[in-house]
Design a protein that fits this description.
- This protein is an all-alpha fold and 347 residues long.
- Helix 1 packs antiparallel against helix 6, helix 4 packs antiparallel against helix 5 and helix 8 runs antiparallel to helix 13.
- It is built from 16 helices and no strands.
- About 2% of the residues have low confidence.
- It has one domain: Growth Hormone, Chain: A.
- 78% of the residues lie in helices and 0% in strands.
């Protein structure tokens, strides 16, 4: 008889959502802090944008290490430690006076912390708890990334009211104080640790689903292959996915996150209005991630390929955002670009 208790995997997913929101607030609000830092120190946009570039680079380099830490140690300790490291780095940015301090605190320290409490470890953890609903669970986590973009309006309000230094202190403390206790208290690695099975099914259903899944998988030639990194790297599909992910999520997404608010402000919009457009981009991103979850039903390619094509087309609009003659462009860009970009990660 099926238990009426709520499947603990939903608790894990909820904590993962909070971790994604809190963690990526620290990165995705850079766009609203960027103009304030330039105005105060006069370093120029290039030198200031390098802060964000270092953050992204270190994050990418440390992500495989973070994945290894999750496999080797208890996830709750890795996530909590990452949140504390990240929050400390961001909070201390409020005391920074020199470029190298930003490069170290935001570019290196906060980025290492985010890699330990961000997308790679959280999706690895959630993947243990959901199999049939994996795309849905990843879509919900992706919505957390979008929610962190929406927080930009709140961050801009804090900057306007308290100053960017106090805003950084608040965001850093908020992220660490929210993520660390939840992960320490409630995160467990696998459903078996609580006597459960993935997706909350019974032992009999789990055996039946495993047999059915194995039967379905064996119908395709690629799935009968034991894939290693070296073997996958010898296929054109691997490099095609790598190229698309690197281009869309590694370059286009990060350019939009770092510079979008500045483009709006160059067009004459107030800081709060510019942050509002950026937050609308986040709302549309959330809608895209939830739409991407339907790939469980209609197939990955039917969602991923159109999303990439629309995202590529919308990218051209990014370079027109600083033209005040196109007053209709910011909301159109926010909706189209955000939706198409959001549909990709869960696929």
């Amino acid at each position: 008889m099926r238990s009426t208790r709520v499947f603990y995997g939903w608790v894990i997913l909820a904590i993962g959502f909070v971790a994604i929101v809190g963690g990526y607030i620290c990165r995705n609000t850079f766009s609203v802090f960027y103009p304030s830092i330039v105005d105060e120190f006069g370093w120029g946009r290039g030198n200031t944008a390098l802060i964000f570039s270092i953050n992204v680079l270190v994050y990418g380099l440390f992500a495989p290490v973070a994945g290894g830490l999750i496999d080797r140690f208890k996830p709750r300790y890795v996530l909590a430690a990452g949140a504390i490291i990240m929050g400390t780095g961001v909070a201390l940015c409020g005391l920074a006076e020199e470029k190298w301090q930003f490069y170290l605190l935001y570019g290196v320290v906060a980025s290492i912390g985010l890699s330990m409490a961000g997308w790679v470890p959280v999706t690895t953890l959630v993947g243990h708890w959901f199999i049939r609903r994996r795309a849905l669970s990843l879509g919900i986590l992706g919505a957390g990334f979008g929610a962190s973009l929406v927080f930009a309006f709140v961050a801009q309000y804090l900057i306007t009211s308290l100053g960017w230094r106090s805003a950084y202190l608040f965001i850093g403390v908020f992220a660490a104080a929210t993520i660390a206790p939840l992960t320490i208290l409630f995160v467990r690695r696998r459903p078996e640790d609580k006597g459960l099975f993935p997706d909350g099914v019974t032992a009999e259903e789990s055996a039946t689903l495993a047999t059915a899944h194995e039967s379905d998988v064996r119908r395709t030639a690629w799935s009968r292959t034991e894939w290693t990194l070296g073997r996958a790297a010898r296929t054109y599909q691997f490099w095609l996915l790598f190229f698309v992910a690197f281009t869309i999520m590694g370059i286009v997404e990060q350019i939009a996150i770092a510079h979008q608010v500045y483009f709006y402000r160059d067009a004459g919009y107030t800081p709060l209005t510019a942050a509002g457009f950026y937050s609308a981009f986040g709302v549309s991103f959330i809608a895209g991630t939830l739409a991407g979850a339907v790939s469980d039903r209609i197939g990955r390619e039917r969602v991923f390929i159109p999303a990439c094509l629309v995202c590529a087309a919308a990218t051209s609009l990014l370079f027109l955002l600083d033209n005040a003659d196109y007053s209709w462009l910011p909301p159109i860009f926010a909706i189209v670009f955000g939706f198409s970009l959001g549909a990709g990660p869960c696929v």
